[in-house]
Design goal:
heterodimer; A: 263 residues; 11 helices; B: 191 residues; mainly alpha; 7 helices; globular
Chain lengths: 263, 191
């Protein structure tokens, strides 16, 4: 039947098929339905690419080839020394403190150098528009990252011991993780449609950790909690969230206190 | 002086010649490759990525391919497109299966259908057709798209997908039945 539907039967086989269809109502109905389906599918119109897509397509491709040739392979997870959760809590805290200092310095640098000039009509920079509207997906992602950060901070800043399990309040964290997981696919789809690939990747990275949290045993499971804490550290998720939040905060929206230069 | 009938893809390989040959290849085939990529992936961004991946692979393999102009080059690029698409889908499915295996018996969010109202404004029929295509497996979709929208004979589809003719027929039959179920409310007598 597939050969008949897609037009590859010779005359003899075609006659044989038709003879069978004349005596088999079930096959005849199936054949008719499949033919009708193909007629519907033939109505498909392939959407055109967005305006301007072809302009510079080859240049973009060559730029990617150039970058590909210069690419230095990044260390893989296999190259990193395994972090033993029970070793050197001091080291963990030192790393977190260092990351916090780095974020602070980065924030100061961004704040000094990256605010767009607030003077309207000035060429060379984006117009300062306190009411600049960003894509809804980006706003949703900001909220999503904020909630994820609160969840992760609550988890990683509490030492995983049996005595602290009540403080950790796992059931509440798991409920939050599950809520975030339910939102993740739609948010990723929205971010992809908005061309926000980096945000989409960060949400995907968070998804793995959230799954781990959602599946922690509610009873005593200190090693599993330590594993989640270690994963958050290894992937530098909190640092990525902080940097992303700072980047989003500086894109096209000046702070309320930004100086406005008047002529 | 007339060009010879058969022109090697790579003409003596000074970097500038290689680059200009590559540009010519891209300019000639980019629309066809993008069209196939869009039919396979269903999304503009994925189609853009896939088409670029195809040309990057073609660039790396240019020295190994010395084919005729036109149809053979197109077939070569089509083959790279289908294998890249299927390999990517396979890796993503494996990664997701591994993730599910890791949490077997545990909690997983319910899978929901991808949102479709973010595509460019299209008629309802077009949207349903696209949705129906997304319900096919990657291999069913590849076979269907190549046969139905690119008019390739079954033998050629089989060669591109590196499977037997019978496998292609089976994929087409199964795929069309799935499409029938997805589009059952569209009947000719309602037009």
């Amino acid at each position: 039947m597939a050969e008949a539907l897609f037009g590859t039967l010779d005359a003899e086989d075609q006659a044989r098929l038709e003879a069978h269809l004349a005596t088999c109502p079930a096959c005849a109905q199936l054949y008719q339905e499949l033919q009708a389906t193909l007629q519907v599918m033939a109505r498909r119109e392939r959407p055109a690419p967005p305006p301007g897509f072809w302009h510079g397509y080859t240049d973009r491709l060559e730029a990617r080839l150039d970058a590909d040739r210069r690419d230095v392979p990044l260390p893989t997870s296999a190259d990193r020394a395994p972090q033993h959760p029970s070793r050197s809590r001091w080291r963990t805290w030192a790393l977190r403190a260092g990351a916090a200092v780095l974020c602070l310095l980065l924030g100061i640098w961004i704040g000094r150098g990256a605010w767009p000039d607030a003077e309207p009509g000035r060429s060379g920079g984006p117009a300062a528009d306190p009411l600049a509207i960003r894509p809804a997906a980006v706003q949703q992602a900001e909220q999503y990252l904020g909630r994820s950060k609160v969840l992760l901070l609550g988890l990683v800043n509490t030492e995983a011991t049996e005595a602290n399990l009540a403080v950790l309040d796992l059931p509440r964290k798991q409920a939050l993780a599950r809520d975030l997981l339910v939102q993740a696919p739609a948010l990723q789809a929205d971010l992809e449609a908005a061309g926000q690939r980096r945000l989409q990747q960060l949400v995907a990275d968070l998804e793995v950790i959230l799954l781990q949290i959602a599946n922690l045993e509610a009873a005593v499971d200190v090693p599993a909690i330590e594993l989640v804490q270690s994963s958050v550290d290894q992937q530098a998720l909190l640092l990525k969230i902080n940097v992303t939040e700072m980047r989003l905060a500086t894109e096209g929206r000046p702070p309320a206190s930004a100086p406005v230069h008047r002529p | 002086m007339p060009m010879p009938a058969s022109v090697p893809l790579v003409i003596e390989s000074a970097p500038r010649d290689r680059s200009s040959t590559f540009r010519a290849l891209v300019e000639e085939h980019r629309r066809a490759i993008y069209a196939l990529a869009l039919d396979l992936t269903g999304q503009h961004h994925d189609a853009d990525d896939l088409s670029q991946d195809v040309f990057i692979k073609a660039y790396r393999a240019m020295d190994q391919f010395r084919g005729e102009e036109g149809a053979q080059r197109r077939a070569w690029l089509y083959r790279i497109t289908t294998t890249t698409f299927l390999n990517t889908k396979r890796k993503k499915a494996l990664a997701y299966r591994q993730l599910r295996d890791d949490f077997e018996g545990g909690w997983m969010p319910q899978e929901s259908a991808p949102a479709t109202d973010r595509r460019a404004e299209v008629s309802t029929v077009q949207r349903h057709i696209d949705q129906a295509l997304q319900q096919l497996s990657p291999r069913e979709r590849t076979a269907f798209v190549l046969r139905h929208y690119h008019d390739l004979p079954i033998k050629e589809v089989a060669a591109l997908m590196e499977v037997a003719d019978g496998t292609v027929k089976s994929l087409l039959f199964r795929g069309t039945r799935k499409l029938r179920d997805a589009l059952h409310f569209y009947r000719p007598d309602l037009d």
